[in-house]
Queue: 3 jobs
Job 1
Amino acid sequence: MNFRPTDYKLRNVADGHVFEDKGWMLSDPDSAVPSLVRAEYANRFFRPRNDLKGLYRYAEWLPIQRTLRHSHAPVTYKSKGLASLLGMPNLYITFSGYWPRIGAKMETCSFKETEAFSVCARLSRREKRILVVQSAGNTARAFAKVCSDNGIPVLICIPQDNVHDLWFTKQLRSCVKVVATPFGSDYYDAIRLGEKVCQDPRFFAEGGAKNVARRDGMGTTLLSAVEVIGRIPDAYFQAVGSGTGAIAAWENACRLAADGRYGQNRMKVFACQNDPFTLLYDSWKAASRELLAEDADGLRRRSETILAKVLANRKPPYSLAGGLFDVLTASGGDMFKVSNEQIVYWMLQFFNKEGVDIFPAAACAVSSLRQALDEGKVSPEETVMLNITGGGLLNATRHGFVQKTPDLILSPDLPAEEIIAAVSGLF
C-alpha cells in the first residue's frame, strides 16, 4: 500500500514556537535556550491504524515518511503473578522483547526497536548520507537489525566493553558497520566518536533524545498500555540511562489528555538507576536542575561495576527544557536507585512470577516499584504501568545467535580527520 507521510509540525518546548520540520530538524534554530522540540500532529486523536502492521499501528503519532519491514509493537497485559506478589490488583506490564506466547516478537529483545523503526522511517527514501548512531548496547542492536533488514546504511559507535550486546538471530547485511571505542571507554566516548565522524557531510547524526522520532517511537509503550487499560495510568515506572523513554511516555500522556477520552494526565513518572552509577538520581535528589559535577574517570569506573550497563549515560537530556527534570517535576514523580543484588533478585522473581526472563535494566524498574510501594509513593490500588524494556533472551536465542564484531576500533581522542578517513573506508 502507499503510505502518506504523517502530517505534523514541531514545537519548541521552551517558548512554544511552532515551525515546520524541514527534514531532520533536531532543535529549533531560533531558540535562545537549550530545549527539546515536540511533534504536534494534525490528528489530535489517538487512533491506532489496523491497516498497518507492528509499530506502525501508531503511525498517526509517529513523525515518519514511510513504513519499514519487520516491525513489532510493545505488548501490554494485566499482571497476575507479580501483581499478586506485590499486592497490586491493577498492575499492567508493558513488555518489549521476544515472548511469542503473549504476541511480543521483538527479536532484539529490547524496546529500542520502537525508536529504531520510527527514526529510520523518518528518513527520506532519497537520503544519500550515512546515519550515525551512538549506543551503549541495546540501541546498537536495534538499529543494526532494522537497518540490515531494510537496506539502510548505518555507522554504529559503541564502547568495546559493550560489544557483547551485538548478538543477532541472523547475519547482518554489509550496510551495517560498527566502530568501537577501546576497552575502558564508555557510552559518552562513543558519543564523542560519532560527533567527530559527523563533521564530514557524508554522515549525519541520529540525534538521540533530540530526535522526535526516537522519543515518539519509545512513547508507543504508553499507547500500548492505554489501549489495554482504557485510560492514562496513575503511575509509570522505568529504568533510565538518559531518561528519553520516560520523557517520551510523559509527552504521549499529554497528547492523550488533550484527546479527552482517556482522562486527565495525572500520571506520576518514576525513574530509577543502577547504583553506583546514579548521576540522574543524585542530581534530582539534590533538587538541582543542572547535572551535578562528576569526575569523568569516576563515572567510567562506576559504569564498569553496574549490571545494567545501558543505564550509564554521562550526557543525559536532564536539564534542558522538556528534559527529565521538567518531566519529573511536572508529573510529581521521583527517582530511585537500585543495587546489583536487588536487580538479580528481581530478575529471578519476575521469571518465577511472570514466566519470562528480563534484562537487568527492566529488573531495576521492578525493584523501584517495590521501593515506591514500601515508601508510600504509590498505593497498592493505583493503576500502574511497569515498562519492562527488555526480555525474552532465552526465547530469542534458543536456536543460537550470530555475534557481530567491530569493523574498527578507534579512540575518540584521535583527530577528527583521522577518524573520518578510517571510517570512510568502510563504505
Note: Residues 244-259 form the longest helix (16 residues).
Job 2
Amino acid sequence: MTIPLRRPYPPMEAQSVDDVPAGPEWQYEPKWDGFRCLVFRDGGKVELQSKSGRSLTRYYPELVQAIAAIKATNFVLDGEIVVPHGKAFSFDDLLQRIHPAASRVKKLSVETPALLIVFDLLAENGKSLTTLALDERRMRLVTFAKIALRGNKTIRLSPATIKLADAQKWLKQVGATLDGIIAKRRDLPYQSGNREGMRKIKNYRSADCVVGGFRYNEGTKIIGSLLLGLYNEQGLLDHVGFTSSLKAEEKKALTPKLEKLVKEPGFTGDKPGGPSRWATKRSAEWKPLKPMLVVEVCYDHFTGGRFRHGTRLMRWRPDKSPKRCTIDQVTAQKKGDLMKLLK
C-alpha cells in the first residue's frame, strides 16, 4: 500500500481577515504558533514536510518516533509543530530546533521536545480524503485520533467548534498567548495550495514605542522604516523592531521632519545591527534620533526582545511621554494556558 498524495504536497492555506466570519457554514480552530507540517506515514517510513515543501524529518526525531509508534500505518495528517514552554509555546525554542548538527538536534529533542497538533486527515489506508468536505474529514480525524492517538502525549488533536461563542471564549481564556483563530468552510474539500474557504484572524496586540531612529529606502533619501525602542528595567532604550507601514506620501513628508531630529546615540541599550537572527546586511545602515517621538504600533508577537515581524503603525502619540514606553507593555501581558485547549 502506498500513500496517494505525492510529496511535496502544498497544504491548504488561509486568507488573513480582520473579523471572525460568522455563520453555520464555518468551523473554528485555535491558530497555533508553530511550524506547519504535513505528516506522511507509509508502513515503516515517516516523513515530515514543511509548508514550503522541505523536509523537517531529521529535526524532530521525537515526533518521528511517536508517529512510527501509531498502529495505523498508512495516512497523511495536516498539523502544526510547537514547542511547549510553561503554559504557552516558544517560537524561539522552535527555531533553535532547525540545526545542521545531528548531535545538537538529538540534544534539543530531549531538552525542548516538540508536540504535533493535528487538525486534518488527508489520506487513510491508501485513499485520499481531500475531495471530502471538511465535516466528513473532521469526523474521520476524530475517529482516527480516538483509536490511533490514545495515550500519545506527543501528538494531540486540535480542538474545533462550529460555535462562534466557543472560539471567542478561547481568545478570552488564553488572551495574548493564543496566536488567533482559524475559520474553515465546513462544506468544502481540502484545497491544496489554495486560500479559498479558510480564514485566519490574528490576535494582534498594541504597544507605545519610542522612535529611536530610521532607515532610508534603499537607494533613496526617503524614509523607508521607523526603528522602534522600549526602555528596559535599567532605563536604557533598546531597539525592539521596526515599522514601515506608512504610505509613500507620508514617508516623503516625514523625511525632512525626522532629519532635523537626527542625533546620537538614538538607542542607549541594544542597537540596530547587533547580533540576532533578524540581522541583515542593511541592519547597520540607520540614522539615530532624539528620543522625542512616540508611536502606537500593532504587532502579533514579541519574543527574544524583538517584535518578530514588522509592526503596523496605528497612530502617533504626542500625548505620551517617551519615558513611559517601557518593556513591561509586552512582557507583563496576561498569559493563558494553551495546554488546556489540548486536553
Note: Helices lie at 61-68, 91-96, 102-111, 134-148, 164-174, 248-259, 328-331.
Job 3
Amino acid sequence: MTRTGAPLEMAWFAALCDDDYEQLGVVDEQLLSSPEHCGDIVRAADQSGFDSILMPSGYALGIDTVTFTAAIASSTRNIRPIVAVRMGEVWVPTLARQLATLDHLLDGRLIVNVISSEMPGESLDAESRYQRTVEHMIALRTLLDGGRLQVDGEWLGVDVDPPRLTTVSRQCPPLYFGGLSEAAREVAARCADVYLMWPDTYDQIAATITDLRARAARHNRELRFGYRVHVVVRPTEAEARVAADYLVSGLDPAVGDAIRSRSLDSTSVGVKAQAALRVGSDEDGYAEPNLWTGIGRARSGCGAAIVGSPRQVADKIESYRDLGIDTFILSGYPHLDECRRFAELVLPLLRA
C-alpha cells in the first residue's frame, strides 16, 4: 500500500464525555467535562496548529455536541470541528438545518462524525440500527447537497425540499464513520467519506484497509481512512513508558469495569476487538512496539495509545500513512496538557 494524495489531517479530542484524567478512573473535579474546560481544550488545539478536533457525543453527561460547537465557533479560527451526531436522534430535515447553520457559523469548517449506536434507553438489533443509519446518512447528504428528499424507507418516510440555507460549499460536509462489524463496514463502503479505525496491530489495520477499499469499489466509490488513537509522548521512550504506567497506577479494577460498561456501544464488535487486543498484549500491555493497551482498562471504545519519544511517535504515525491513512484523531491525558505537549514535540516532525 502507498500513501494517498490527501493532505495529512491531525486532529485532537475535545473530551466532552467526562473522559479527562490525571490518572485514569480517579476523578478530578477540575477535569470534569464542562463547556468551560472543553472550550479550553478546543482553543488550545486551534492555537497549537491541529487541523481538526473531534467533538464526541455522549448522553450521560448532558453536554450537547452541536450546541457546544455552535457556542465555541466564534472563538476558533482555523480548526475544523468533527461533530458527532447519532443517526435518528434528530429528525433528518431538522438535523440538516442545524448542521447547515453550524457550518455557516464555522465559515465552512464543519466535518460530521456519524454515530450508529442505540439511543439512550433503546434496545435495537444491529441490522435495524445500521439500516436506520444508512437511510439517515443518504437523506442527510441529499439535503445538504441541496437536493429534494423523497424517501419511503423502513425508518424514514419524508418528501421535503432542502432548507434554503445550505452549507457554505453547498455540499454535504465530509462524513466520518467507523465500525468493525460486517454491517458497519458496508455502511462505510456505501455512505462514508472517511472510514475511522480504532487501534490494532499494524497487520490488522492493513487488512482492514484492504477490505474496505474492496467494499467501496463494489459501490463504485473510494474511501479515505482515519485512525483514532491516544498518545503518550515524552522526551525519551523510558519517560513515556513511566508516564503511561502512572496513568493507570491509581485505577481500581471495579471502576474500570464500570467505565467500560456504561457506554452505549459497550457490546459492539469494535469494543470487543479492543478487549481482545488488550488480552493479547505482553505483560506490560504492549500489543506491538509503542502500541500500549493499558488505556483500555478504563475506557470503552478506543483503548490503546502510541507511547514513546517524539521521533518514535512520529515514525509510528508515518508508518500508518504508508498504509494509506491520512487522518489521525488523537487524545491524551490530561487532554489539555498532552495536546500542547504533542503539538510542541511531534507536530513539527510530521509537518516537516
Note: The domain at 9-351 is CATH 3.20.20.30 (TIM Barrel).
